[in-house]
Amino acid sequence: MALRKNNGPLYSSPMTVWFTLFFLAPILIIFIYSFLKKGLYPGSVEWQFTFDAYRRLTDPSFLDITLRTVKVSIIATVITILIALPCGYFVARSRNQTFLLLLIIIPFWTNFLIRVFAWINILGNNGFINSLLMNLNLINDYIPFMYNQKAVTLVLVYMYLPYAILPLFATIDKFDFSLLEASRDLGATKFISMLKVLLPNIKSGIFTAVLFTFIPIFGAYAVPQLVGGIDSYMLGNFIADQMKGGNLPLASAISMVLTVVTTIGIIVMMYIQRGEARRMKDAAKLAAASRNMNENGLAA
Description:
- About 75% of the residues lie in helices and about 0% in strands.
- The chain is an all-alpha fold.
């Protein structure tokens, strides 16, 4: 009997070409440019191998921007996850899942910049909040809600909250809620049941939500540019300014560092998830074996 020809590589070739042209090729170009020397004219480079761009990354000013970016990214991600967890749980337990998911997805129908400008109209000096407080005679002068790290964090949380809710909902929806009832029957409080039973079983969703929020926030440009001030200047803004100034090697070097860091983070998360899945599988096997031994013992 003749073996059937394997056409898998042929079927996957369009996707392979797509990833090569629009993912690997740009990264390769950025990698090469990061080791070149800045030319005399803006946007030009000298084809001379050098580490000058990477040496610039050790400057104290750049380290301050990096630490500020990490700080804002961590705070915004933690707040996003803390809000997304109860939201995902509520949607998973609700009978109106479709409607609630629609409400979560609706912001994606609006342009990113429009949503940012909406927050500017809310938080601005002449925005909705300040106008309301003045009309109620609660304040005599406007409160500076805008152009600081708090405004950047607030808008970032709003922008990327759906990216955290959706994977958490998908994971919680598959959770066996009878385990929570069993833990309550054994004397655990509702909080302890959530902490010791629910959270360990939805780690994969939490890891995915963290990745979907931290990585884009870490490279955010538009939000810090539009609603932030001097104290919220982040790496995304620094890269954009270097590109505008024509320093392509330095911008490429920073982009490569961010790419490597995020890639390592993804690999670590995938490794943790794989380990968790393996441990849960082993625990299920042990539980099944123990159940079979008890049944065999009762039968004997």
